[in-house]
Amino acid sequence: MITPVTPLLAGAEPLPLREALSGIMGSISLVSWIFLLVPQVIENYRNGSAEGVSLAFIAIWLLGDIANLIGALWGHLLSTIIVLGIYFCVSDVILLFQTIYYNHITRVLATRREHAQSSASADPQDPTQPLLVRPRRKSSGAKSRHRRSSARRPDSLSAILEKKTSVSVAVSRNIFAVAGICFAGTLGWFVAWRSGAWSATEGSDDGQEMSRGAEMLGYLSALLYLGARIPQIIRNYHNKSCRGLSLLFFLLSLLGNLSYGAGILCHSSDPAYIKDNLPWLIGSLGTMFQDVIIFIQFHVYSRNPREAPEVDSAVV
Question: What are the domain boundaries of the chain?
Answer without folding.
Answer: 17-107+160-307
